Amino acid sequence: MIGLQIGWGTTLAIKTLIVLGFVPLSALILGYTFLLKMMSHMQSRLGPMDPGGFHGWYQLIGDGLKFMQKEDIMPAEADRRVFALAPAVVVLSTFLVFVVIPAGPRLVVEPLDVGVFYALAVSSLSVIGVLMAGWASSNKFALMGALRAAAQLIAYELPLVLAVVGVVMQAGTMSLQGIVFHQQSGSLFGWSGIGQPFILTQFVGFALFMVAAQAELTQPPFDMPVAESELVAGYMVEYTGFRFLFFFIGEFGTAFAFSALAATLFLGGWSVPWVHGVAADWLGPLVLFAKVMFVAFLMFWARFTYPRLREDQLQALAWKWLIPIALVNILATGVLKVAFR
Amino acid sequence: MKREIKGMFTGLGVTFKTMMKPTVTVQYPHEREDPPTRARGVIALKEENCTVCMLCARQCPDWCIYIEGHKEQRPPRREGGKPRNVSVLDRFDIDYALCMYCGICVEVCPFDALFWSPEFEYSEQRIANLLHDKDRLGEWMATVPEPEPLEEGAVKGKK
Amino acid sequence: MTTGTELPPPNLPGGVGQLPEVHLDPQMLRQLAEAQVNVELDTGDMILNLGPQHPATHGTLRLVVRLDGERVIAADPVIGYMHRGYEKLTEYRTYPQITTLINRIDWLSSFANEVPFIAGAEMLMGIEAPPRAQYIRTILTELSRIATFLLFLGEMGLQVGAITPAFYGFRDREYVLNLIEAVTGGRFHPNFNRIGGLKDDLPWGWNSDTRTTMRKVLESCDEFENLVVGNPIFEQRTRSIGIIPADLGAAYGVSGSNIRASGVDWDLRRDGNPHLPYNEIEWKVWTHPDGDSFARYWVRLQETRESARMVLQLIDQMPSGPIMSKVPRIIKVPEGEVWVNTENPLGEMGYYIVSKGATGPFRVKIRSASFSNVSILPWMLRGVYVPDIITILASLYFILGDIDR
Fold first, then answer.
1. Domains of chain C from N-terminus onward
2. Using the beta-carbon criterion (under 8 Å), do C387 and A306 form an inter-chain contact?
3. Kindly report the CA angle at B60 between B54 and B64, in degrees rounded to 5?
4. What is the pLDDT of residues C279-323, one digit of tens each?
C-alpha cells in the first residue's frame, strides 16, 4: 500500500485498527453534527452547549462513557446468547462496509474488484441482527418492531441494488476505485472541468439510492420498526447500556457508510478532477468527507422533516413505485449507453 | 401528484428556514429570563401588619400555612386608659412543598401582610427545607415588586 | 395574515364510513362490554397492552387491544389511573378554593375550566360580571384555546412520526403562556376567575403585546400548514383513518372539534348559552365533511387561526370599566341547582352545581369532554392497523385529567 516493506500480518493489523477506530469516530461526527446540532437548530433550539465548553462537542463522548459503565440488564425471559449477539451482528455489517470505501487513489483498506456488490451484500447482514434483537427480547413491542424491520429492510434492498446498477453500467466496473476514476476522468459533452459525476446522468438512480438508503437505515419517513411514539424503540427497546451503544454506533456508522457509498458512486468520491497522484492521497479524505457531509445533510434533513409511513404504505412505495422506476432507469441507461457509444 | 411533490418540498423549506434563524433557547444558568411582575414565585410576609387573624391558614386549599400566636398585654396608648390586648405572631410557616401557588392567602388577608414575589430560585435538596419560617418569609419582602400600572380602560377602585 | 386555506379535495378510497369486513365473536363482544380484560387467548391472536405508560396515550390511558398480526380485532380502553376525586373534593371546599383546583382538570387550557363553574355560581347568585370582565374572560379563554391547540398541532405531528412540529408547537405556545402569565401570574394555572368578575385588571402594555403575539400565532399556523398539513405522507397517514360518522358521534357524546370535523355545525359558543360576549364579534365555525383524522387536524388548525382573529377583535372592542361587580365579602351562594356548559378546547364541558346556601357547594358534577370522546374508541378501533391506533388517539385529543378527573 505505502512504499514500505511491511509484512502481511502487520498490514492486516493496521487495517483492522483503522476500520475499528474509524467507525465509532464516524458515528460520533455524524451524531454530533446532525443529530445534536442540525436537528436542534431545525427545531429552534441550541442542543448541547455545556459539555466540553464549546457548543457541547464532548456530549456524545460523555454519553458513550456513560453507557459503558451501566449495568448489564437482560430481561428475565430473554434468550441470553441471541440477545447478546444481536448488536454485534448489526455492527459487524457496518465495519465490513467500510473496508471497500476508497478515500484516495491508494487509500483503501481492500480494493475489491466487486466492491459495489460486496458493499451492498454485506450491508444487508444487519437484517439478521435486527430479527435476533427483536426475538430475543421476549417483548411483544420488540417483536413487532423486528418483524416490521425485516419486511422493510428486505423490500428496500431491491431499489438500493437496482439504483446502483445504472452507475455500474455507465462505469463498466464494479470496483469502487474504478468508478471514482471513471468519474474523475470523464467529461460532459466534451468539457472535462468537473469530470463526469454520475449524479448528473444518474439523477434518478441517486434519488432512488437516497430513498432506499433512508429505508435501510430505518430513519423517518421509514422508521416504522423504531416508531418512537408507538413501540418506543421497536426492536431495541430492551437494550440498555453498552449494547444500546452498539446499536447507536451501528445506526450512525451505517449512515456514514451509505453516505460515503452515495458520495463515491454518484458524486465522485475522493476525486477532484484536476488533482492526481500523491496530492490526491492527501486531499482525497478531506474531499470525501465534505461530500459525505453533504449527502448526510440531505438524509438527515428528510429525517427530521417527514412523518413516518405506515408499513403497508411503505411496502407499496417500494414494490409499486421504486422498483419499476429503477427498472426503467436501467433500461434507459442501457439504451443511451449503446446509442452514445 | 404535483400538489404532493410540492408538499414534500415546502416541508423541507420550513425546517431549513428555521435552521437558519436564531434559536429561542435561553441558556438558563448562564442567562435568565425575568418573569413578569405578577408572576407567582414565592409569598413574602410583612410581619408588622399581621394580626394573627388566621384567615389565610383557614382559606388555604392545601392547609400549608402553620400559624401560632399568643395574646399579650401592651401599655395603653394614652394615660389612664385600659391596657391593650395585642396578638403576637409566634410562628408563621408556609410549606412550599404543599403550596400550590393559588394566591388565596394573599388575596384574603385583610391587613395586606402577604405579598407575591416573582422569585423562583429557592429549590432545596431536602424537602424539609422547603418549609419557610417567619424570618425567611420576611426576607422575601425585599424582592416584592411595585404593583404595575394598569392597562387603559381599567377603573381603579374596588378590585 | 391569511384568511385560511382552500379545502383540499377529500381523498377517500372506498368512500366515507366504509370499514373493512371484520367478523366479531358475540361472546367476545359481551366479555369486552363487561370490561373484562382477561379474554381467552385464541391461537393466532395477540393481546397487546398499550399500557398506562406509553408515549402515545397522552397520560395514563391503558388500551388493551387484541391483534391479528397488525390489525386490531377489538380494543378496550381502561381509564381511572388518574382519578383524583374532584367531585368529592368539591364537597369540602369553598368556591375560591374549588376554582384553584378545577384549573387542573384539563391542565393545558386551565382558564377554560374555571369559566363554566364561576358562571354557574354567578347564575345561582343572580349577579353578572361587568362587561370588561366578560371580555377579558373571553380573551383568556381564547388564549387557552390557542395554547392547547398549538400543542395539539405539534404533538399530532409527533405521533405520526415527524419530530420537528412538536418543538414548534411548544415554542409558539410559550408566547401565549407569557401573555397569560403577565395577566394572571401563572402560566398554566391562572386561577383568575372570581365570583362576580376577575381578580385583577390587565397590566400596562398587555394589549399591544397580545396583538404582536396573535400575529406570531397566525404565522406559526402557516408554518404548521406547510410542514404538516401540506405533507403528502401526513395525508396518507391520516386521510380516511378513524372516521366518525356524524350521527354515531353525536350518539356517543363526542363534542368539540371532533364532531365539527364530521360535518356537524355545532358550537356552544354560538348555539348554547355562552355567558360570554361571543355574539358581539365576527367569527366563523369551521367544519369539515370527512370526519377522519385529517379533518380533525385541519379543523383545529383553522380554529386556532379563528381564535387569534377573535382575540384581536376583542382587544379592539374592549369596554372600559370595573372588573368586579359588587359582591359581599364572604360569599354564600343561595340554594339552588344549575347546569352550565361551555365550549372548551377539548369539547363540551359542563358543571352541575347543587348549592345549599353555604360558602361551598353541596355537590358538583363535572361533565368532561374527553370522557365522552374516548367512549367511541372501542367502536372506532376495530379493523385498523396498529399505527392507526396512534393516529386516532392523537387526533381525538383527550387529556387524561379530563377523562378521569
1. 86-404 (1.10.645.10)
2. no
3. 90
4. 888 888 898 888 889 999 999 999 999 999 999 999 998 888 888
